[in-house]
Specification:
Number of helices: 4
Family: Belongs to the FlgM family.
Shape: elongated
Distance between the termini: 78 Å
Mean pLDDT: 80
Protein name: Negative regulator of flagellin synthesis
Largest sheet: none
Strand content: under 5%
GO biological process, one term: bacterial-type flagellum organization
Keywords: Bacterial flagellum biogenesis, Cell projection, Cilium, Flagellum, Repressor, Transcription, Transcription regulation
Order of helices and strands: HHHH
Pfam families: FlgM
């Protein structure tokens, strides 16, 4: 029995794989990630007054700890922990 090839194009799997890899490399080389930050977002990040207030508060606590005058309110700490774990 003889099987004849009828209307079957010659397929080279290695060549088609090379073409796919080449196309994906070209596609990835063309794409680049971009980020745009609005002027409002830039303005808000510059106006971070919370950072300055926080820095002052932390500095005061550090000074109290070094002086040995910092007192921890156990009731407030316990209440905060309970509130945190109830969420």
């Amino acid at each position: 029995m003889k099987i004849n090839r009828i209307n079957i194009p010659a397929v080279n799997p290695y060549r088609t794989n090379e073409l796919k890899v080449g196309k994906s490399a070209q596609h990835s080389a063309q794409q680049q990630d971009k980020i745009e930050i609005s002027s409002k977002a830039k303005q808000l990040s510059e106006m971070n007054s919370y950072g300055a207030e926080r820095k002052d508060h932390v500095q005061k606590i550090k000074e109290q700890i070094e002086a040995g005058t910092y007192k921890v309110n156990a009731e407030e700490v316990a209440k905060s922990l309970i509130d945190y774990y109830k969420k």
